[in-house]
Structure formats: structure tokens, C-alpha cells
Input
Amino acid sequence: MKALRQIWVALGIFLIFISACDTPSNTDTPPPSSNKDEVKVLVNLDQLRIRKAPGLESDLLGVAPLGTTFPYAGEMTDFSTQIKLGGVWYDEPWVSIYTSAGDTAWVYGGGVMFEGAASEELAEILLEKRMRAFFGSMTDDLLTYRDQYAQASTSEEFAEVFHEGEEIRDRLVDLLEQKIPTAEAEGMPDIFWIERVFPGYVVELVAEGTRYFLFKDFKQLYTKARQTQGEEDDIFTDLGLEVYASDSIEYFFPSWFIQTWDYGGHSLLGSGQHNDVLALADEVTQMTDLFKNDIGIFKRELLRDITHPEITYWNAQDKIVSELDTILKIKYDILSQEDLAVLEARLSQFKEAEKNGIELNIRTGL
Output
């Protein structure tokens, strides 16, 4: 009997333990849903206020930290409210959510995004409202660009939308500088949603995290180019990946330059990157004129890296002389007779670097 009683006691403790495990915890964060098609509201602003009803006058129920998700309660207001978030004015609707207690509450649309397999239409509505408040008349240009990018089916159409994107990027950067005040990185508003309407580009913080810039992402462009007819855009995006070999992103410094501080560094002439880029650029130039101006920009920057008197060099003299000698012997078609003459003169200077005041072998610290 004693042994039987011990078994029943143990069984009772086990059942209590199981029951406790099945009881949901009482937290402010909604429990995860097993329905993969459920639309969720993702908080992308830290300490987002949760209100009883839509509008700034409604009772405050609490706040949600960055990254919190709530089930969408199925409503978005027809009206919008102007609110300043992170120093930037938004004009967006209110979005209904379910709290962890199952009650309906409301959050400001400017601080959330929609997630989930069935959220695409809702996300598009909210995104366009955000764009029109943020970019005004430029919104139509962005939406047109996104459609043209998606529909481009030939190398020629790719080249057209590629150059259209460059023009829009320059305008966007100017607009961002006007709308977003300079601040410390943690005080900058979240504008990474721009990438959803501007394919081929990524948003990055620059200037020690105090302002935004939009950079081409040649990995995205490479993938798109391989979906089109024709090889011209394929090999051009190959060139872009060669120029920005570290991570495919068009940062301020290309692969032939090593950045050693925020605003500068040293040339890598002698490592082979200059010759590799010239070889690929020469191949693209012989194939097509679609990217002639772009390749011209790459070439000018590369030649400047070799010839400018203020450039300093990471590698030793023998490596530098060897690579430059190789380039001159090949005589790429992309290099004019004037270019070749300048490189010949520069090679002579490298051979007497100390006499010509050229700093070499920086990597050794000597």
C-alpha cells in the first residue's frame, strides 16, 4: 500500500507539472500563432504606444518594444494622423491589433509593418500611404521604377531601368538630407522600408551613422540581369561584383582600395584588382555600348587611383611595378593612347618612388 500511495503521489505531481506547462504566461507580448497565413503587425519603432481607440486622444494602454508582433485585428482607419517620429513627419492611418488578452487595440501605422503570407495587399496600402507622406510627388516615380524593374526582360530594358534608378537615387538622397535631421545612429528613424519599393538598392547609414545613403546592390542586379534576354547586362553586373567584391554593395571605396579609417585608406595596386577590373571592363566595352558611361566612370576612378599624387599604396614596390607593367603590356582597348602614356610615366615614377615622393608599402608600417 505504501508503494502504491507513492506512485499516486508521483503521478499527481506529474499531472500538476503538465498542467502548469500548458498554461499561457501572462505577458505583454502576444503569444505566437501557429497559423502561417495569419497577418501580423510588426513593430519597427521602439516603445510604440498602444491605444484603446485610433487617435492621439485615446487612452494609452501600454507600449511595445521594437520587434514585437501582434495579430492583425482586421481594421485600418480611413483617416490618417500626422505624427513626428525620429525627427520625421509621418501621415499614416491607425492599425488594429489583438493584445495578449485577446482585446482589440490600436497602433500608429507609421511605427509598424505587416507580415505574413496574406499581408501583401495590406502592406502595399500602408507602404504607399507612407511613401506619399514621405516623398510626395516622387512616389509615382518610385512606383513606376519598381514596375519597370520587375518587367525588364532584355539587356536593353535592364540598362534603361538601371540608369533611371541612378537618377532617382540622386534625388532620393537629396530629399532624405532635407527631411531627416542629422542625429546619432540610435536616434535615426527607420527608413529601411524604402528597399521594398527601390529594388537594386540598399539603405545604409554613413558619415558615422548620422545620415542615410542609397547604394547599388550588384548582387540584386546580378540576379535580375540573369532573368533577362541577352548577355550584355550579365557581364556588366559581373563587372559590378568585381568592382565591389567585398560584399557586392556599391560603397564609396571599390575593391582596388583598402579603407583603413572612416573617410580614407590606401590603394591596393599590386594585388591584381586593377588588372582584373580592366580586363572585365574591356570585355563589356567590346560587347556593348549600353553601359559605356558607367564603365567610363569605373575607368576614370581606377586610373586616378594609380596616378593621383596624393594616393598612398598598401603594397611593396615590386608588386606595384609588376601589375602596372602587366597592364601596359596587354594594352586593353578600353585604354586610350593618352591613358597608356600616363601609365607609362607613372610606372617610371614608381620605379623611383622615394625620389618622386610616393608612399609605398604602407601595410608593413615602414
The chain has three domains: 40-116, 137-252, 253-366. The longest strand covers residues 69-76. Residues 1-34 have pLDDT under 50 and may be disordered. Residues 253-366 form one domain.
